[in-house]
Amino acid sequence: MAGLAESGSNPDVDLLYDINGLAKDAPHWFDRVMEFVGEYGLLLAMVLLVLWCWWSVRRRGAEDAASSVAALVWAPLAAAVAVLVNVPIRGFVERPRPFLDHQGLDVLVSGKTDYSFVSDHATITMALGVGLFVANRKFGLVGIGLALLEGFCRVYMGVHYPTDVVGGFALGTAVALLLSPVAMALLTPLMKAVEGSRRLGWVVRARGAGGGQKSVVSGARSERSVDSEERDLAA
User: How confident is the model at residue 221 (pLDDT cuts 50, 70, 90)?
Assistant: First the structure.
C-alpha cells in the first residue's frame, strides 16, 4: 500500500489529482463550504437522518416498530465498532496522508498527522447508511448517498486517497451487515421490553400510534357489550 502511495503512475494517485484538482479551480468560498461539509456537515446530517427515521418509525407505530428501532440503535453502534476495527488496520498498513508523499495538492484541512488508510469519515458514514438501510430502505438509500458524498469530499479536500475511501466503505458495510444478525438478536428483545414499559415506551412507539389505537377500539367495544348485557338483565 505504501508503494502505491509513492508512485505517481497509478489510477489511485491519478484520480486523487483529478478530484483534488477541482478544489484549485473552485472559488475560495466553495472550498470553505466543502471543508465544513466534508469534516463535520455530513456527519451531522447522518445523525439527523437517523433521528428523523426514528421519529417516523415511532409515530407510525407498526407491529415491527421494536425491530425497526433496534436496527436504528444498531446503526451508530455499527459505526463505533467499525472505527474500533479500523484502529489496528491503520497501524498495520501505516499509509501516510497523500499530501506527505505528493506535491501540488490543495489541502483544505490542516493538522492531519495520523495514517490515511482507511478513512474514518467514510467508514462511519457508510456504516450509518447501511444500518439505516436495514431499518428503512428509503432512509437507508439517502444515507448511503450521503456516505458516497462524504467519500468524494475527503478526496476533494486532499486528505485521503480514493482507495482510503473505498476501504472505509467496505469496512463500514461489512461491520453493519455481518454483525447485524447478532445485534438484532440482542437488541430486538431489549426494544420490545422498552416498548412495554410505561416510562420508556415512547422511545419505540408514540402514544396513540399503531397498537395503542387498536386497544382503545377494543376497549370501547367491550364497554358497549357490558352496557347491552346490563340492559338485557334489566328487561
Answer: very low
pTM score above 0.90? no
Q: Where are the alpha helices (DSSP H) in 38-119?
A: 42-60, 65-93, 98-101
Read off the pLDDT of residues 202-220 as tens digits, 9 standing for 90 and up. Answer: 878 766 655 443 333 333 3
Q: How far is Cα 7 from Cα 28, in angstroms, rounded to an integer?
A: 30
8: DSSP letter? S
Helix 120-135 vs helix 162-178: angle between axes, to the nearest 10 degrees? 40
- Estimate the crossing angle of helix 42-60 against helix 137-156, to 10 degrees: 180
Running DSSP on this structure, what letter comes out for residue 9? S
Digit-coded pLDDT (tens) for 112-150: 888 999 999 999 999 999 999 988 899 999 999 999 999
218 CB neighbour count, 10 Å cutoff: 9
Indicate the burial class of 228 (C-beta count within 10 angstroms; 0-12, 13-18, 19 or more). exposed
What's the CA gap between 9 and 17, in Å, rounded?
11
User: Alpha-carbon distance 139 to 11, whole Å?
Assistant: 33
pLDDT at 80: 96
SS3 for 1? coil
- Cβ pair 158, 98 in contact under 8 A: yes
Q: Cα dihedral angle (113, 119, 124, 126), rounded to 10 degrees? A: 160
Q: Which three cell numbers stand for residue 129?
A: 447508511
- DSSP letters, 193-213, are HHHT-TTTGGGTS-TTSTHHH
